[in-house]
Amino acid sequence: MDDGWKNADGEDQEKTESAACPEPSRRAGAEPASPGAPGTETGGRIVEELEKSREQLLAKELEVKESYDRLLRLAAEFENFKKRAAREKTDAIRYANESLLKDLLPILDNLERALEHAKGGGNGNPLLDGIELVLKSFLEVLEKHGVTRISAVGELFDPGKHDALAQMETSEHRPNTVVEQHSKGYHLPGRLLRPAQVTVAKLPQNQEKRMDAAEVENEDADD
To answer: What are the tens digits of pLDDT across the range 147-195?
Structure first.
């Protein structure tokens, strides 16, 4: 009797075990990939693309950081500019009349000298001369800063530079002519500082009625 026993089909037990347990490589159904196989090349390209993408991403991150830093610097510079502009505007408003005030100080000195001379018991002539000098100096300062007087008496009334306080009936002046000035007017180039306050001439009522009647007669004659 043989050492190896047979199964019901009569096959050797060793052969049956060999068939039931194939080799691992044969079970997998594939042989090990060689280094030059197509799958290895595809994996290498993917790694290269990933590395390239990572480098591009790092470059973009650096670019974004530089842009953000530049934006912060611009914002800080703009904020400093706004503060400087506001300070300059405040100084300009505060000291806008500095030059004019400096020019008025000598006039104040002359007024004080004239007042001191009057207190000293001097006669009226030096005091009058001092006041005239102060007035002359004051007008020169105004002219230096572009301020000029508005002419009024003898001119036709102009609402753009005259302020009519009253009307005077008179036949000696043309109607609507300035016959008296109560206070002088002044203007800067292109801007009215103060209108001249004036009295304006008008025809007496009897002459005005005669003129109205004459106009009516002329209209009737034309008809």
So the answer is: 888 888 989 999 989 999 999 888 888 888 999 998 888 888 888 888 9
The dihedral of CA 109, 115, 119, 120: what is its sign? positive
Q: How many Å apart are CA 20 and CA 26, to the nearest integer?
A: 12
Neighbours of 174 (CB within 10 A): 12
Which of 167, 156, 158, 151 has the alpha carbon at shortest distance from 200?
A: 167
d(CA 201, CA 150): 18
Calculate the alpha carbon distances from 76 to 67, 89, 93, 126 in Å: 14, 20, 26, 64
* Rounded-to-integer distance, Cα 65 and Cα 68, Å: 5
Structure tokens at 167: 């009307």
| Cβ neighbours around 198 below 10 Å, total | 26
User: What residue type is assigned to position 152 of the chain?
Assistant: A
Q: Where are the domains of the chain?
A: 148-223
> Residue 209 is encoded by which pair of tokens?
């009625």
User: By C-alpha distance, which of 193, 202, 186, 198 is closest to 150?
Assistant: 186
Residue 8 confidence (pLDDT) above 50: no
User: What span, in angstroms and rounded, lies between the C-alpha atoms of 102 and 105?
Assistant: 5
* Contact between residue 145 and residue 103 where contact means Cβ atoms under 8 Å apart: yes
Q: Is the CATH code 2.30.42.10 the one for domain 148-223?
A: no
- Which is it for the CA torsion 95, 96, 101, 103, positive or negative? positive
pLDDT at 5 over 50: no
